[in-house]
Design brief:
Layout (H helix, E strand, L loop, with lengths): L4 H11 L5 E3 L6 H10 L3 E3 L3 H15 L3 E5 L3 H16 L3 E7 L15 H5 L5 E4 L6 H13 L5 E7 H5 L20 H13 L3 E5 L12 H8 L3 E3 L19 H7 L2 E5 L18 E6 L13 E4 L2 H11 L8 H22 L8 H10 L6 E5 L2 H9 L8 E3 L9 H11 L5 E6 H7 L2 H7 L5 E6 L4 H11 L12 H7 L3 E5 L5 H10 L4 E6 L13
Parallel strand pairs: 1-2, 1-3, 3-4, 4-6, 5-6, 7-8, 7-9, 9-10, 10-11, 12-13, 12-14, 14-15, 15-17, 16-17
Helix pairs in contact: 1-2, 1-6, 3-4, 3-15, 8-11, 9-11, 12-13, 13-14
Length: 538
């Protein structure tokens, strides 16, 4: 049966894994909404296109498949650019549909006309205009393959109005939504196994690429076979749960400074590892990455394996079986450092009661987490502190914007999480600065009845920057905010809110927020701390 291009694209996107279409309404793309409605695919409309893009990125991470958003032409596409750039840097597969004026009017000054394809090209795997309604299925399939192959990332498909509203004829949509594997070489696995046999102080770092590996459900078991002290980075956080004996959190700096073999499984040597300088100069590096170019960046490895880190770990676990007592003294040494650092954190968390210590805030949230909890970080300084105190309970249950350092993703991520996992409790740790970017998305959460708990660490400042300004310049410029009652804003939008200044009030406030059944915000006045002094990354 003949259908419009908009309905064909909706079916094609559904068939490759789209669960929801995230959007902000626009005339150029409204025929896609009709197609989604006919298919029963929910259309979730946000208050800003950036938020729709963030939600699509979160959907991809949470389902380990593909996220999709559609935005109208001109400012609609320009508003989603930040979310696309974030997906590009975090290597998240998503498809962005952009509207455009009808092709016969292009070049004549049509409403919202601009060259979107050129704008998006540098931050996507593929940026292209769909040329005809009949070619929609082919372009969607190619977009999916581009987004999910090699180094994963976003794709942009521009769909002019005539493509979406014209009849596509009797197009048959047969999509393949499977992610192609990217196996590693056997020689590199054997080389890595030999290095581990000789190692005295080995360390395993798992990074974001683990999340989208076909082996993701089995990575925890593979780590247990290898029995290596393990540190989790980026989207790999939560893989080992909260209390696994191979999970180390606080001793990474000391471990990397003393390690003799370091496995970097999907972990780039970027600013988070001081471009490789955080690792002992004499350490042998085993680098595995979906990006062949990454393997030689900043510091070469003794072993460089191009491919999926999960595939590498599976093959390594089949090849190398450590003895039961492997590296016992090394692990005990790291455990002692873990316990020392943990004691420091708990001691500092107890030092103040009014306003609330940031470390205590994270510890109180962590007490309430369940095996199904999803935790989102959206901020600078407060999220940095929370990373030391909040332990996600499973893989994919921690979301933050990643290495681009983007703010404003918190509420959109939470909305996507609650849509996809309604049985999970969803928590967002906001900085008060970050909340200002997309706090209006509480309206979206209220409209769709998606309860989550937001917790603002409110110190009335852009503290991560202010902390650097004061010793450098003796003054702070453009970093002071007000101790604003954001909780009252959320209440005005139809959510639940409260303001906390005393630590004694905090546990009850968090419990009441979770039990409210509404999108909730606990606005917590936090005090200054020296815990993260000197921690700014630039």
């Amino acid at each position: 049966m003949s259908q419009t291009g908009g309905k064909v694209i909706a079916r094609a996107l559904r068939d490759i894994g789209m669960t929801h279409l995230f959007t902000l309404s626009g005339g150029h793309i409204m025929e896609i909404y009709e197609g989604c409605a006919d298919l029963g695919v929910p259309v979730i409309d946000f208050r800003h296109e950036q938020a729709a893009g963030f939600a699509a990125e979160a959907a991809a991470r949470l389902t380990r498949r593909i996220g999709v958003c559609a935005v109208t032409a001109g400012p609609g596409v320009m508003n989603v650019v930040t979310a696309v750039a974030n997906a590009w840097r975090s290597q998240t597969p998503m498809i962005v549909i952009g509207g455009q004026a009808a092709q016969p009017t292009l070049g004549k000054g049509a409403l919202q006309e601009m060259d979107h394809v050129a704008v998006l090209a540098p931050i996507t795997k593929w940026s292209v205009r769909v040329p005809s309604p009949r070619e929609i299925p082919d372009y969607v399939q190619r977009a999916f393959e581009a987004a999910t192959s090699g180094v994963m990332g976003p794709v942009f498909l521009e769909c002019p109005m005539d493509i979406l509203f014209d009849r596509a004829g009797s197009v048959v949509v047969e999509m393949d939504g499977r992610v192609a594997p990217l196996p590693v070489g056997e020689r590199e696995v054997q080389q890595a196994a030999e290095l581990l046999r000789q190692a005295q102080r080995p360390v395993l770092l798992l990074g974001s690429q683990i999340l989208f590996s076909p082996q993701a459900p089995h990575i925890k078991a593979l780590v247990e076979v290898l029995s290596l002290p393990t540190y989790l980075n980026g989207m790999a956080r939560g893989l080992l749960g909260a209390e696994h004996p191979l999970f180390f959190l606080h001793s990474r700096k000391a471990a990397l400074a003393q390690a003799d073999v370091v496995i970097l499984a999907g972990v780039p040597l970027d600013f988070r590892l001081n471009y490789g300088a955080s690792i002992a100069e004499g350490a042998q590096l085993i680098r595995i990455d979906r990006d062949a170019g990454e393997l030689q960046r900043n510091r070469p490895g003794a072993v460089n394996a191009h491919g999926d880190p999960g595939d590498f770990l599976q093959r390594l676990a089949q090849t190398f079986k450590p003895p039961l007592t492997a590296w016992r003294e090394w692990k005990e040494q790291l455990l002692a450092e873990e316990q020392r650092r943990q004691a420091q954190i708990h001691a500092e968390a107890a030092t103040s009661t009014r306003p609330v210590n940031p470390l205590r805030l994270g510890l109180e949230i962590d007490k309430l987490l369940t095996p199904k909890s999803i935790v989102i970080g959206d901020g600078g300084d407060i999220v940095g502190s929370s990373a030391y105190t909040i332990r996600p309970r499973g893989l994919g249950q921690w979301l933050d914007a990643g290495p681009l350092g983007t703010l404003g993703a918190g509420a959109p991520y939470a909305i996507a999480a609650k849509l996809l996992f309604p049985e999970s409790d969803v928590w967002v740790v906001f900085g008060d600065g970050a909340f200002g970017l997309n706090g209006m998305e509480y309206d979206t959460a209220v409209r769709f009845n998606l309860p989550f708990v937001g917790v603002i660490g409110n110190d009335a400042a852009w503290t991560q920057i202010k902390r650097a300004q004061l010793p450098m310049y003796g003054r702070a410029i453009a970093t002071d905010l007000r101790l604003t009652r954001y909780d009252q804003m959320v209440e005005a939008l139809g959510g639940w809110g409260c303001f906390v200044e005393d630590t004694a009030e905090l546990p009850e406030a968090l419990e009441r927020a979770r039990a409210s059944g509404k999108p909730a915000l606990v606005n917590v006045h936090i005090g200054e701390t020296e815990f993260r002094k000197g921690s700014i990354s630039m």
